[in-house]
Amino acid sequence: MHQDRQRILTVSVKRLLRRGATSRLKKIINKTHGADLSTLFHSLPTKDQRILFDMIDEVEQKGILFSEVDTDIFINLIDGIDPDEVVTILEAMPNDDVADLLKELPDETADGLLKRMEKEGSDEVEDLMRFEDDTAGGIMNPDFIALNQEITAREAIERIQKEFADVEMPFYLYAVDEHNKLVGVCSLRQLVVVQPQTPLKTFMATDVLSVQTHMDQEEVAKLVARYDILAVPVVDESNRLVGIVTVDDVIDIFREEATEDILKMAGVGEEFVETQSIFKSTRIRLPWLFASCLGGVFAFYVINQFEASLSRLTYLAAFIPVIMGMGGNIGTQSSTIVVRGLATGRLDIRDIWSVVGKELAIGLILGIVYGLFIGLVAQFQYNTILLALAVCLAVICSMSVAALVGSCVPMLFARLNIDPAVATGPFVTTAIDIISVYFYFSIATHFIGV
Amino acid sequence: MHQDRQRILTVSVKRLLRRGATSRLKKIINKTHGADLSTLFHSLPTKDQRILFDMIDEVEQKGILFSEVDTDIFINLIDGIDPDEVVTILEAMPNDDVADLLKELPDETADGLLKRMEKEGSDEVEDLMRFEDDTAGGIMNPDFIALNQEITAREAIERIQKEFADVEMPFYLYAVDEHNKLVGVCSLRQLVVVQPQTPLKTFMATDVLSVQTHMDQEEVAKLVARYDILAVPVVDESNRLVGIVTVDDVIDIFREEATEDILKMAGVGEEFVETQSIFKSTRIRLPWLFASCLGGVFAFYVINQFEASLSRLTYLAAFIPVIMGMGGNIGTQSSTIVVRGLATGRLDIRDIWSVVGKELAIGLILGIVYGLFIGLVAQFQYNTILLALAVCLAVICSMSVAALVGSCVPMLFARLNIDPAVATGPFVTTAIDIISVYFYFSIATHFIGV
Q1: How far apart, in whole angstroms, are the C-alpha atoms of residue B420 and residue B338?
Q2: E strands present in B268-402
Q3: Nearest one of A443, A437, A441, A436 to A306, comparing CA atoms
Q4: Which fold does the domain A2-131 belong to in CATH?
Q5: Among B327, B425, B336, which residue's Cα sits nearest to residue B371?
Q6: How far is A122 from chain B (nearest CA, A)?
Q7: What's the confidence (pLDDT) of residue B449?
Q8: Dihedral, CA atoms, B420, B425, B426, B431, nearest 10 degrees?
Q9: How would residue A342 be classed by pLDDT, with cut points 50, 70 and 90?
């Protein structure tokens, strides 16, 4: 339903652009939501993007578009605009969004724009730009309601109406002491329920959940989700309140992190490549396949070691795919469960031995089930009990080891502070391939005694 | 940091339970957040869960715990409690949470509890239970602020303070007509800004974004995220307002759907199995491996067809792993990009031909790169130009076909309204394995002319 609407928008704007129907276009552009406008811009050539951008009446809407489009479109857009207009648009945007945008620009361009901005705004933007992108400081909103804990509920209401009328997400009132340190929190509703002359400090909640500026954004997001709160305050090293992270940002973080995890596990880098050009996409995917290629070449040399067995018992080759496949699949299961468990907080890296032990047990059970099945196929086909036994044992070994490696590696990576998702794609499967093939030929050679 | 706190809580509660330090326990339990309490309960035996549960003073806190714990713990808990107390707890909970809980119980138990509840509440709960779990109706909150569009801002403020003081998430005021149909929306802030005697209908926004009760929860979540809103109204077929979906539910949906996708793609079912017992986990994972096992047995028969070639050119076997590995990995890349692109809305099923065409092109380019590399290895090892050519061509074919199959299958599944993530795990990789092996031996047999 929604995608239909977007498609109709794109098709009609393209038609109107061809016809040069400026007044119709102006009307459509100015009543379309910024998020839809951004999707529209992604399917238009730069020339048309500029034409439409100039048709936008409100400077706020231009700012929303700046935030919503991908970086390369943003850079193309400001390339064709007078720097003074760019500054006017930036000054109408929330400072955290401006900081995010300027971080994407070359240093000189960003500095040039900052110099043209009013001092108060540009100082705050520069402060925000110092934080790493994916930390609480990098995503926080510097607009929030904070008042001294000594003032009364009535004063608080008056000051909120006067000074904080344009705070974007006014969920909570944070109480601070004379050094601006966070000491309490209360909901706006509490303010109207208590007696007007009650000071904040007598009814505020004092065990405030807060995060430090350098905390990883994923950790921040987990806290907000876990305690079902609408915003979490961000403090610096001395517990001074510097910003808040709101629930709408948390949604973006979860989507981004889940996509990143999935892509890394499949070995396609971290960024979403589908919307990029064929050559760019190829370049991103190429190195991830290299691990798999090297592993395959290594497996080739392993098999070569057993050429003597193979040349006498050709049929051994026919079981290579099933043994590799079973090991590979159970290894993927194990590593996925561990990576996702760590990401969602259902598993803790300190549980490493119980998790790995459990995976090993599961690998052993499933290995016996499928080992017997595949052994029966071998027996049925060749009527050689020793071959059947060798195949059965190879499947059991391959699946147990795969479950062990698949669960161990991401756990160890997490302990070493390497993102476990990276470990889980081509690297683990390739390692498992080599181990499986080696076990299989060793066991077969030993059993059948070639 | 957070996990440390949780661990300290668990360790100290276990120690206090052993010592029977009731008053200390009571103090701790009653100041711990419901989410933390739930995690604690998951690591305690049923007996201790009951002891701690009885120590909770506030009926609301008991309700929060009911919502937070897994279903089996909830069932164990209410098993030991007087039904009248269960009803008291349920009546203190939001009705949508009660509906979610009762859906998990056997029909007679749920009916019994509903009969004991007060009529007004139980009617609403029963209404909510009719909706499918993962639709807008199934996740919506029936508590919202709705007023007739004819009343003035002043009246609206008065009525909100009187009638809607306990609405959980009071972000927006929805305006309805005399038939209760949704006609507009305004923010609570607007109410205080306009002249008190202005009727709602003159300043409310009239193009309200709303969803129908049967809309899939993932679609609802995408809308909320796309337009950065805090709540979306849910309407029935006649556009009557029946509930709202709030931003905190959207977070849960995204986390749930991302985890589901990842698990399905890895072939581990839909539910998170790590926290389940070894045997339950084994049972869930067993059938997903069966596809891979059958595929492997099929590949076995394919290779058997080429026994004549194999027995003369044993070394052909040594390339099986690298050819299967390269095909499998690029196929996983393609299917992951498509599945995730569809899930996040960056790809549209109507773009099937351009997406598949692009993947095929990328598969071909990467196939040529790696085909040449692996062909060189073959040439270096055996100094047989025809073998090198055969290996090179087999890699190119295998990788192109894998990219094609990997992108086609999830697209086709999505078109047929089957969840594309299911298609992407063992099924696609197994199909690619068989195709790769077949291509390889056909090409080799043809080239080297055995």
Answers
A1: 9
A2: none
A3: A441
A4: MgtE N-terminal fold (1.25.60)
A5: B327
A6: 26
A7: 67
A8: 60
A9: confident
The CATH class that applies to domain B145-258 reads alpha beta
pTM of the model: 0.74
For residue range A136-164, list pLDDT tens digits in order.
Answer: 999 998 888 999 999 998 898 888 877 87
If you average pLDDT over each of A66-70, B376-380, B430-434, which comes out highest? B376-380
Rounded to whole angstroms, the maximal C-alpha distance in chain A is 96
In B8-67, the residues whose Cβ lies within 8 Å of chain A are 33, 35
CB of B394 within 8 Å of any CB in chain A? no
pLDDT higher for B243 or A278? Answer: B243
Domain with CATH 1.25.60.10 in chain A: 2-131
Structural tokens at position A399 = 């699946």
* A438 has a chain B CB within 8 A of its CB: no
Q: What is the pLDDT of residues B139-149, one digit of tens each?
A: 998 888 999 99
- Nearest CB to B325 within list A3, A272, A430: A430
| A115–chain B nearest CA distance, Å | 31
Lowest mean pLDDT among B193-207, B301-315, B342-356: B342-356
CATH 1.25.60.10 in chain B: give the residue spans.
2-133
Rounded to whole angstroms, the Cα distance separating A20 from A39 reads: 21
Q: Give the pLDDT band (50/70/90) at residue A383.
A: confident
Helix (H, G, I), strand (E, B) or coil at B362: helix
If residue B87 lies in a helix (H) or strand (E), which one and from where to where? helix B83-91
Superfamily covering domain A278-448: SLC41 divalent cation transporters, integral membrane domain (1.10.357.20)
Q: How far apart are the first and last CA of chain A?
A: 65
Contact A299 B374 (CB under 8 A): no
Helices (H), A105-212: 107-116, 119-129, 136-139, 153-163, 188-193, 200-203
B61 CA: distance to closest CA in chain A (Å): 13
Residue A202 pLDDT greater than 70, yes or no: yes
Return the H-helix or E-strand segment holding A231: strand A231-235
Tens-digit pLDDT profile for residues A220-269:
998 888 888 889 999 999 999 999 998 888 888 888 877 777 777 777 66
Which residues in chain A touch residue B255, judged by CB atoms under 8 angstroms apart? 225, 254, 258, 344
pLDDT at A268: 66
- Topology of the domain comprising B2-133: MgtE N-terminal fold (1.25.60)
Q: Mutate which of A276, A307, A311, A329 to disrupt the B interface (most B C-beta within 10 Å)?
A: A329
Q: What is the pLDDT of residue B240?
A: 94
Specify the domain boundaries for CATH 1.10.357.20 within chain A. Answer: 278-448
DSSP letter, residue A227: T
Q: Which residue bears the tokens 């009543």? A: A31
Contact between chains at A228 and B272 (C-beta distance less than 8 A): no
ipTM: 0.72
Q: Which member of A35, A226, A272 has the closest CB to residue B226?
A: A35
**With an 8 Å Cβ cutoff, are B332 and A262 in contact?**
no
CB contacts of A261 in chain B (<8 Å) are: 258, 262
d(CA A111, CA A95): 15
Residue intervals in chain A for CATH 3.10.580.10 = 145-258
Q: Which two tokens stand for residue A254?
A: 């979860």
Asked if A333 lies within 8 A of B228 by C-beta distance, the reply is no
Mutate to test the interface with B, among A228, A272, A346 (most CBs of B within 10 A): A228
Q: How far apart are CA B55 and CA B349, in angstroms?
A: 54
Task: Tell me the DSSP string of B402-436.
Answer: HHHHHHHHHHHHHHTTS-HHHHHTHHHHHHHHHHH
Residues 186-245 of B with CB under 8 A from A: 189, 192, 219, 222-228, 230
A207 three-state secondary structure: coil
